[in-house]
Design brief:
Layout lengths: L1 H10 L5 H28 L22 E7 L10 E4 L2 E12 L2 E8 L10 E6 L6 E6 L20 E2 L4 E3 L3 H12 L5 H14 L3 H20 L1 H20 L1 H20 L1 H24 L1 H20 L1 H11 L9 H4 E2 L2 E2 L9 H9 L7 H8 L34
Parallel strand pairs: 1-7, 2-6, 5-8
Antiparallel strand pairs: 1-4, 2-3, 3-4, 5-6, 9-10
Helix pairs in contact: 12-13
Length: 411
């Protein structure tokens, strides 16, 4: 009875319900198609590089007065946009963009207004946590420059940290890889072998090692004492190299001319060998004759020692004596003044005093001193008279005498 009634009820529904369900299905399919088109458009867009590269409003380095700083890095280490920029562990900005400029990875950083950096500031990419979060660290070098980095008006060439001032800390992967290399075949099993070899080297050689260290200390001390000489030698070498560098054309000409000369020597090698052989034969003959005359030659050389010694003692008078050899009895310097054409200029001083005549004529006779006494009787002062040769030492023996001292016969 109930089944019959449901069949009658179904047959009694109005026919306008069928078009309404079809319209609902068409509208649902249209929304699905539109959503798929939007997703495909977003995924195939060239400007979309992930949600991490979307700028965060109000983030570090985006406020009023912030400026842009460019950092050239050798490797980005998969750092993402919006990563923190830190100075002394304080967040002062964020990464706005990562791009490739002239085949160099360049980070575009947004820095807060109050951050001041020197011109030679350094940048490093570090890892914030073990999970892989990374940041850019800006730090001062050992010798900060007085010039500021990125001064107003913030031009790009003044706001760039070059590649030579940037680097990266080892990340977690590199650290774990290094530890793994050490623990697995990194040489730890060889430490025992190395320890045994070091023990074998030092065992039983304490005295030798101590002596070596003593010599090394002496060598280091002497080397330290001669550091001025070493520095002088280095400076002299530098001056020599500078001198040679200034004459590069001469050196080039020498290097160009030497090969033909070497070739000439190579071509005349037989002649050089014959010359060397001839010199060797001459040496043998000379040695033969000198060996036979060695005894007399030794005696002659010993005999020459005495005259050469006396010649050395009289060397101060040698030049003066040479002036009289060819022009005796006149000095060679006075000859042009002495002879004038066919006559000779002579200047003479004749002493005819009684004391002089006594020395010249009566010396050695029984009347020696008579004329001198007669001159003194006339009132002549003995101090102004010529000295009496009877009481005057031999000029050859007198200190500072006019004649050269005689040579030693026993030399």
């Amino acid at each position: 009875m109930r089944g019959a009634m449901s069949a009658v009820g179904a047959k009694s529904k109005p026919s306008h319900w069928a078009p309404r369900g079809a319209m609902r299905r068409v509208r649902h399919r249209a929304w699905q198609t539109l959503a798929l088109l939007l997703v495909a458009l977003m995924l195939s867009s060239c400007g979309w590089r992930g949600i991490s590269n979307v700028s965060i409003p109000g983030g570090p380095g985006t406020g009023d007065g912030s400026y842009v700083l460019y950092v050239q890095v050798p490797d980005t280490l998969a750092i993402n946009g919006n990563s923190k920029v830190m100075v002394a562990d304080v967040t002062v900005g964020s990464i706005r963009d990562i791009r490739l400029e002239n085949w160099i990875a360049t980070l575009k950083l947004g820095i807060d207004k109050g951050v001041k950096l020197p011109r030679n500031a350094i940048a490093k990419i570090g890892q914030t946590s073990l999970l892989g979060s990374q940041h850019v660290e800006l730090a001062l070098p050992p010798d900060p420059s007085p010039q500021p980095l990125c001064p107003p008006p913030h031009r790009k060439q003044d706001c760039t940290i070059s590649l030579k001032n940037s680097s990266a800390y080892p990340n977690t992967e590199q650290t774990l890889a290094s530890i793994s290399m050490i623990l697995r075949g990194g040489g730890i099993p060889n430490l025992e072998v190395l320890q045994n070899e070091v023990y074998n080297v030092f065992h039983g050689r304490a005295d030798q090692i101590r002596a070596f260290l003593t010599k090394l200390d002496t060598f280091t001390d002497q080397l330290n004492q001669q550091r001025d000489d070493i520095t002088h030698a280095i400076d002299s070498t530098n001056r020599l190299l500078v001198y040679v560098g200034r004459r590069a054309d001469v050196l080039d000409r020498v290097l160009t001319d030497i090969p033909p000369l070497i070739k000439h020597f190579a071509d005349t090698r037989d002649l050089l060998i014959n010359a060397v052989d001839a010199v060797g034969q001459l040496t043998q003959v000379t040695d033969q004759y000198l060996s036979e005359a060695r005894g007399p030659l030794h005696t002659d050389l010993q005999a020459l020692q005495c005259p050469l010694k006396e010649l050395g003692r009289g060397s101060q008078y040698l030049l003066g004596a040479l002036k009289l050899i060819l022009t005796q009895p006149y000095d060679i310097d006075t000859v042009p003044k002495l002879f004038r054409g066919d006559y000779q200029n002579v200047s003479a001083t004749i002493d005819v005093t009684f004391s002089a005549m006594d020395n010249a004529l009566l010396t050695g006779t029984g009347f020696s001193g008579a004329l001198r006494a007669l001159e003194q009787s006339f009132g002549r002062d003995p101090e102004t008279m010529i000295p009496d040769v009877r009481y005057t030492p031999n000029p050859n023996d007198a200190p500072g005498g006019p004649l050269v001292e005689r040579g030693d016969r026993q030399c």
